[in-house]
From TrEMBL:
Record-linked SUPFAM superfamilies: Adenine nucleotide alpha hydrolases-like (SSF52402), DHS-like NAD/FAD-binding domain (SSF52467)
Cited Pfam families: ETF, ETF_alpha
Residue span(s) of domain Electron transfer flavoprotein alpha/beta-subunit N-terminal: 4-194
Keywords tagged on the record: Electron transport, FAD, Flavoprotein, Transport
Species of origin: Ectobacillus antri
Entries under Gene3D superfamilies matching the protein: HUPs, TPP-binding domain
Transmembrane portions of the chain: none
Family: Belongs to the ETF alpha-subunit/FixB family.
Stated name of the protein: Electron transfer flavoprotein subunit alpha/FixB family protein
Top-rank taxon, per record: Bacteria
Length: 320
C-alpha cells in the first residue's frame, strides 16, 4: 500500500482526459493507499473536484502567476515541493509533451526509477508490473520498480479511467510554494495546431498521407472528421509535401496515437508511420494500391480512390 501523487494536466482551462486515466493508474499503484491529485498553474482550483469525482482521494493545488504557462523550471519547483510535503511512494504523469519533458528531470532529482509510456499495468505478487511498447511498438516489455518511488508516465487513451462518481468528496488544499525566478519566461503562445479535437487524445483519427495530393485534398478528410467528432492527423509524407502542419504528424518522429478508430487515407504504411498508430484499436485503410503495406496492419481495407471513398463515408455517417 502506498500514497500516490498524480498530476492533473490542464489545457485551455479544462483537465485533459489523460489526467483521469492517470488517476486510474494511480489507484492500481496505490494498492489501496491514498491517491492525491496535484494541480499546478493559475486559476486551477475549480478543476480539483473533477479529479476527485474520477477517484482521487484529495487534491493539492499550487497556484502562482509564474506557473500560468508550463516551464520545466517552474513546474519542477512546484512538483518537488508537493513531493517534499507529501512523501509519496508513487508518482503518475500522462505521457504527454509535459510529462515527457518534466518526468525525467524530476526522476533524476528524486533519484527515482521512471517507467515511461506505460500502456497497461497490474499488480502481480506485490509488484506493480508496467507494460510499455519498445522498438516503435513492435514489441512490449514488462517492467517493475524494485526500490524507491514508483514513478510512471502513462500513454493517453490506453488506461480506462474509472467511472465518474459525482457524489465523491475530498479535501482540496492549496500548497504555498515560493517559485524562484524562472530561467525561461513564456511571453506569448502562438497556436499552430488546427482547431478541434486534440490529436493525441482523440477517440477517432482521420489521417491523410501523400495520397491527398495537396492542402486542399485534406478538406474531405476534415469533413469526415467533423461528422465523426474526430481529429485529423497526417503522415510525414503529407507534412514534408507541405499539405499540412507538422503538428499533425503521426509516427516515430511525430505523435503516437491509440484511438478506437484510425482511418488512414492515402498512406502507404511505412514502418515509421506504423510506429505511431499500429496500436489503434480498429484500423481502416483506404489506398488505391492493393499491395500497400498499410493493409498489413488494417482491420478493414478499402482499395480505391480516397477522393471517392471518403465523401461516400461522410454521407453514410451523416445518416446515422
Ligand atoms: P507515400 O509513401 O508516398 O504513400 C502515399 C500512398 O498514397 C501510396 O500508398 C499510394 O498508393 C496512395 N495513394 C495515392 N493516391 C491515392 C488516392 N487518390 N487514393 C488512395 N490512395 C492513394 N513517416 C511518418 O508518417 N511519420 C513519422 O513519424 C516518420 N518518421 C520518420 C523518421 C525517419 C528517421 C525516417 C527516415 C522516415 C520517417 N517517416 C515518417 C517517413 C516514412 O518513411 C515515409 O516516407 C512516409 O510515412 C510516407 O508517407 P505517405 O505514406 O503519406 O507517402
Amino acid at each position: 500500500m502506498r500514497k500516490v501523487l498524480v498530476m492533473g494536466e490542464v489545457r485551455d482551462g479544462s483537465l485533459r482526459n489523460v489526467s483521469f486515466e492517470a488517476v486510474a493508474a494511480a489507484k492500481t499503484i496505490a494498492e489501496g493507499g491514498e491517491v492525491v491529485g496535484l494541480l499546478v498553474g493559475e486559476g486551477i482550483a475549480p478543476l480539483a473536484q473533477s479529479l476527485i469525482t474520477y477517484g482521487a482521494d484529495r487534491v493539492i493545488t499550487i497556484e502562482d502567476a509564474k506557473l500560468k504557462a508550463y516551464t520545466s523550471d517552474g513546474y519542477a519547483q512546484a512538483v518537488l515541493a508537493a513531493v517534499e510535503a507529501e512523501q509519496p511512494g508513487g508518482i503518475v504523469f500522462g505521457h504527454t509533451a509535459l510529462g515527457k519533458d518534466l518526468s525525467p528531470k524530476l526522476a533524476a532529482k528524486l533519484d527515482a526509477g521512471l517507467v515511461s509510456d506505460v500502456t497497461a499495468l497490474e499488480v502481480v505478487g506485490g509488484n506493480v508490473v508496467f507494460t510499455r511498447p519498445i522498438y516503435s511498438g513492435k514489441a512490449f516489455e514488462k517492467k517493475i520498480i524494485t526500490e524507491g518511488i514508483v514513478f510512471a508516465t502513462i500513454r493517453p487513451n490506453n488506461i480506462q479511467p474509472l467511472a465518474q462518481d459525482l457524489s465523491r468528496t475530498g479535501e482540496v488544499t492549496s500548497l504555498s510554494v515560493d517559485i524562484k525566478d524562472l530561467r525561461t519566461i513564456i511571453k506569448e503562445v502562438v497556436r499552430k495546431a488546427a482547431e478541434g479535437v486534440d490529436l493525441s487524445e482523440a477517440k477517432v483519427v482521420i489521417a491523410g498521407g501523400r495520397g491527398v495530393k495537396s492542402a486542399e485534398g485534406f478538406k474531405p478528410l476534415q469533413e469526415l472528421a467533423n461528422v465523426l467528432g474526430a481529429a485529423v492527423g497526417a503522415s510525414r509524407g503529407a507534412c514534408d509535401a507541405e499539405y499540412c502542419d507538422y503538428s499533425l504528424q503521426i509516427g516515430q518522429t511525430g505523435k503516437v496515437v491509440t484511438p478506437d478508430l484510425y482511418i488512414a487515407c492515402g498512406i502507404s504504411g511505412a514502418i515509421q508511420h506504423l510506429a505511431g498508430m499500429s496500436n489503434s484499436k480498429v484500423i481502416v485503410a483506404i489506398n488505391k494500391d492493393p499491395e500497400a503495406n498499410i493493409f498489413k496492419v488494417a482491420d478493414y481495407g478499402i482499395v480505391g480512390d480516397l477522393f471517392e471513398v471518403v465523401p461516400l463515408l461522410t454521407e453514410e455517417f451523416k445518416k446515422l
